[in-house]
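Reviewer 2 asked us to include a model.

Predict the structure of this chain.
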Amino acid sequence: MPEARSWARLGGWLGIVWPILFIVVMVAAEMTFPPSHSTAEELAALGQPHVGHLGMLLHSLAAMIGLLGIGWAVALNFVLQSERRSRAATLAATFGVAGFAIVMAMLIVQGSVQTGIAQQYATLTSDADRVATVAAFRSVRWVDLGLDFTWDIFIAWSMILFGTAMLRTRTFGKFWGIFGIVIAALLFELDVRSAPHPAEPDISPISFIWFIGVSIKMLLFSRRAPKGMGGDEIPFRASA
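Predicted model (C-alpha cells):
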C-alpha cells in the first residue's frame, strides 16, 4: 500500500505539471518571438543572438515534458496494476515511455535546427545562398514533423490502452476510460488523415483535460488507497 500511494502521488503531480509546462512554454513563445510572414523573415528573426538563445531555451524547457511524461506513464501503470493486473496497462506504459522519449527528441531537434540554421543564415551575404538556405530549412523541417507524427501515434495508443485498463477499475472507472479512448481515437484519426502535416483542426489541447483529470484521480488514490493495494498483497486478477 505505501508503495502504491507513493507512485500515485508522484505520478499525479507529474501528470499535472507537464501539460501546464507545455502550455506555459507555448504561450511564452507566442508572446516573445517577433511575428514573421515568411520563412526568410523567421530565419532573420531567429538569427538574432538573444532570440536564438531564448528559442533554444524554450525548446529545452518544453522537452522536459518528455522526462515528466515518462514518470507519469510508469506511475499510472503501477497504480492500475495495484488494483487489477492488466496487460493493456503494461503496453500503454511502454508506448507512453516511447512516445514521451520521441517528443523530447523532436523538440530538441526542432530547436537545434531552427537556431543553428538561423545563425548560419545571419552570416550569409549572397542572395543565392540565402535562397538555398531557406529551401534547405523548409526541407529539414519535415524531419521534426515526422517525429511529431510518430509521437502522436505512440501517445494516442497509450491513451487508448490506458483507457481500456481503466474501464474495470474503481479508481478511474468507465468515465475516464471511455473519455481517454474516444479522445485518443479522434486525435489518431485526424493525425493519420493530415500526415505528414499537423492535424487540422488541432484538438490536442482537449487531451490535456484527460491527462490532468487522470492525474487528479491518482492524487486522490494516494490519499485513500485501502489496505491490500500495492505490490504482492493483492490476489492476481487478469484483465484486458
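Residues 2-231 form one domain. Residues 127-166 form the longest helix (40 residues). We have added this to the supplementary material.
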